[in-house]
Amino acid sequence: MNAESRMQTTAGRLARLGFADGAQAERLLDELGPEAVGDLDLLAALVGAADPDLALTSLARLAERDPSVLGALRADPGLRARLLGVFGLSAALGEHVVRHPGHWKLLEGEQAVQRMPERDMRAELLEAVGADPSEAEPQAPHGGTDTMSALRVAYRGRLLHLAARDITGQASLSQVTAELSDLAAAALEAGLAIARSDHPESADVRLAVIGMGKCGARELNYISDVDVIFVAEPRDGVDETKALRAATRLAQGMMRACSTSTPEGALWEVDAALRPEGKAGPLVRSLASHLTYYRRWAKTWEFQALLKARPVAGDMELGEEYVAAVNELVWQAAARDHFVEDVQAMRRKVEANVRASEADRQIKLGPGGLRDIEFAVQLLQLVHGRSDGLLRRRATLPALAALSRGGYVGRDDAKALAEAYSFLRQVEHQLQLHRLRRTHVVPESVTDLRRIGRGLGMVVDPVGEFTTRWRRHAMEARRLHEKLFYRPLLQAVARLPGEEARLSTAAASARLSALGYADPDGALRHIAALTSGVSRRAAIQRTLLPVMLGWFADAPDPDAGLLGFRQVSDKLGATPWYLRLLRDETAVAERMARLLGTSRYATGLLLNAPDAVAMLGSDGELAVRPKASLSAEAHASVERHSHDAETAVASVRALRRRELFRTAVAGLVGRIDIEEVGQALSELNDVTIQAALDAAIHKISLERRGDFPTRFAVIAMGRLGGYESSYGSDADVMFVHSPLPGVDEKVATDAAHAVANELRRLLARAAPDPPLQIDPDLRPEGRQGALVRSLSSYEAYYRRWSSPWESQALLRARFSAGDPGLGAEFTALIEPLRYPVDGISDSAVREIRRLKARMEAERLPRGADPLLHTKLGRGGLSDVEWLAQLIQLRHAFDVPELRTTRTLEALRAAVGAGLLAATDEEVLADAWRFASQIRDAIMLVRGRAGDSVPADVRERMLISRALGYPPDGSEDFVDDYLRTTRRARAVAERVFYGG
Question: What pTM does this model have?
Fold first, then answer.
């Protein structure tokens, strides 16, 4: 066999053993010498490393610098496992050992497996910078790059020692994170010693460094920003201002000593952004200043951060005073004003700022990541730690265990969550050790995934096994995070069997209050009613409710959501498909929870037709049905119940209720916009009116014992005519008839009156379904005029008496129901009135402007704020609609595109004809849409119509949430509306009054 064949054979064997590049591995082994080539123990250790190629490369480089390492590896199996374990996982630590070859000796002998005490670690790093550890305030002889580099070398030597024990399983996760935190504290102390050498005035001040975040909790990872807060006090006789200036320079010097890049790199960033006022506040404060801020200004998230506070460097006595003082405030945070709003904002922040491209690979901030678990644990500590001192733990896993022992978290849930958290922390360490870089994103390359999997002990299929376990733990963490707050609430009220400690009623009530329930005791009663007992229905509810309670909490009105759910469940609970649908179709349950917690109107519709829950299952079910389909269904109902008009129209109103629900849900979830909502509601009203008209004509014909003697049509007016109906709109209409040939006018008119009155009665009857109020007040002579006129009577009236306001009202007129031919004749009759040749006269323009000004002055309800009234207020609907209608009255004869009943369509046509600037149209349309959305939201949220933005803070919040604003966005909502309508009013004054 020639040399090349032998090389290929050896390279192939190495590849089969696990080396990615067998040929290179063979060359590197050859370079190590014949003893290394034949050392099966060495080969086995390399093959067992997370990345055999990386381990061999680092070993070969080290052997060039210090050949004695090979003999030491053969003589010491422990060294061999530790050094090659580190080399196979961490390219950065391999580089460090190559740069400082003496450091491999830290991993040999008994001392390699012993944890260095915190005091000795501090002494070692202080000595590395030339400071005396025995001094009360150690000081390096000088600062500068060399001193900072020495600190980094010593720090990484300790990091190497710890990583070796970690990788070989000689230190647990909690021991690793605690030692990393202690090592960071020692480095901060050494950084302070360097800073003192540059700032001799530091003798005037006591400075304590408070560790925050993971450093404070002694759960630090390998590479992380180290969060700190600085607190200082002047020494006796020293001016406080002078002392704080000195302390600030000392703190800045310490931060530079750790963060500055040197030939040995940097340690990590020291981040003081968790201090009062964040980066905008002073870097250093006195203890009294800290406490004043926390008592008066701090937000809940700041108390959440202070859960972790621990003195780590500097004046430890002062640090302990600080922690003792702030702890008294931390555990009262849940009783502060705005706690619920702050918690909701914190929950949103948990999932914010994650790049979409990384979200599913983020082990810290992504769904089911470390932040999910940490947030859940910390929030439960804040809520319940006020009354239970056993929960006052800094670190996540001990706190989770305490929550479980106290019954605040289910035992199985706590166990699963602890396992997920531990696994994710181990993955975090694997990611960061490789390059000693701060990262929380799982890589996509197979090589990197293989290294991580093998580093976690997965050897058969490291990529597949790691990916599966990671996804499973993340999914479990996410699922438990969503249920963690709520499942123990069920145990508190449902009297479930088991020996597990239970949440007390008081604790359950406190938790519900913290999560946004205004009536926690009522909520507990609802939970008890839904979940108590041994029925299958109660068992399914016990599965559903922990998740649904969280969705209710995320909705604007959690109490209303839970109450609505109980009511719907009471009506449908015995129906086999209902609970099965909610259990098996998560999207249905979530959509239902958000709907019930947002809209009383939709809840009311659902309570009277609970089977409509099924339409929440897909977006396809929420698509607005075509008018022709609705008409066919309504017509069939009327035909089926032709013997009884009331039953027929009741069936049609039930159809309308179902479609109102469909439209409301589609609007709330953003499937349709406000113009589409208006069209859907208007067409639904047309269908309803047509069906009721058919029933009324049939009934009156039977009563008269003959054929109906006249053609009859319903003319839509107002918002119905403009396809702009809202949920609270009446149906503005006019009634027109035309006697059949040979029929006496009075006979025909009497019959038409009877039908019109019966139509109105049928649609307004008290019933479970929403009424459709028919409003005929826009007819000639208003309420004093005849309810129904013949076509010839309309013609005579308009010829003799028509006024400008009637021409304006007729701009909205269109055929709605009844005889299409008669509707077309009526439309032809009014065309010259609403689209006059050469436009309306100047006097008519002045009259319309006077009417508009009078309406603003007289029709605005007493006490209403003109800035917040969506219909008659400044920049509201009437400003936009009257402006569009004035343009139509003046120009629609010459511009056929203006001949529309729709406001926004008229504005767009005006832009196309050069009658309105495009920028003005955009301003007006924005205001019209916003005002229309608010009117609809008021009806949806309150279940009753309204035209003004509510003055009540809670109602305003509920409406802003329904419009898509965050929980703390109600003021932004009002500001947005005022800004939008102010701009629209400016356009209206210029174009309507001045144009």
Answer: 0.75
pLDDT above 80 for 312: yes
Q: Give the span between the Cα atoms of 25 and 13, in whole angstroms.
A: 10
- Cβ atoms within 10 Å of 70's Cβ, excluding its own: 18
Which helix (DSSP H) or strand (DSSP E) does residue 205 occupy? strand 205-211
d(CA 382, CA 332): 8
In Å, the largest CA–CA distance within the chain is 124
Distance CA 143, CA 199 (A): 10
Q: Please, are residues 561 and 553 in contact by the beta-carbon 8 Å criterion? A: no
b/e sequence 626-657, b meaning 16+ C-beta within 10 Å: eeeebbebbeebbeebeeebeebbbbbbbbbb
Q: Are 591 and 546 in contact (CB under 8 A)?
A: no
Phi and psi angles of residue 172, each rounded to the nearest 5 degrees, phi first: -75, 170
CA within 13 Å, CB half, 648: 26
pLDDT at residue 491 in the model: 64
Report, as an integer, the average pLDDT of 561-580. Answer: 87
Give CA–CA dist 425/396, Å, rounded: 11
Contact call for residues 180 and 216 (beta carbons, < 8 A): no
Residues 419-453: pLDDT tens digits?
Answer: 999 999 999 999 999 999 999 899 999 999 999 99
CA-to-CA separations, 489 to 74, 434, 505, 510, 563, in angstroms, rounded: 60, 43, 8, 10, 16
For residue 642, the one-letter residue type is S
Place of tokens 């409406």: 959
Angle at the Cα of 703 from the Cα atoms of 702 and 708, rounded to 5 degrees: 60
Cα(605)–Cα(524) distance, integer angstroms: 25
List strand residue ranges (DSSP E) for 384-448, in order: none
SS3 of 546-572: HHHHHHHHHCCCHHHHHHHHHHHHHHH
- Strand-strand pairing, 310-314 and 788-790: unpaired
Per-residue HEC secondary structure of 838-880 comes to CCCCHHHHHHHHHHHHHHHHHCCCCCCCCCCECCCCCCCHHHH
Residue type, 150: A
Place of tokens 């947030």: 375
Contacts of 853 (CB under 8 A, 6+ apart): none
Residue for token pair 């997965």? 458
What does the pLDDT look like over 496-516, one tens digit per residue?
Answer: 444 456 678 888 898 888 888
Q: What are phi and psi of 310, to 5 degrees?
A: -155, 130
> pLDDT per residue over 617-673, tens digit each?
888 899 999 999 999 999 999 999 999 999 999 999 999 999 999 999 999 999 999
Cα separation, 67 vs 32, in Å, equals 9
Classify residue 338 by its DSSP letter.
T
- Tell me the helix, strand and coil percentages in the chain, rounded to 5: 65, 5, 30
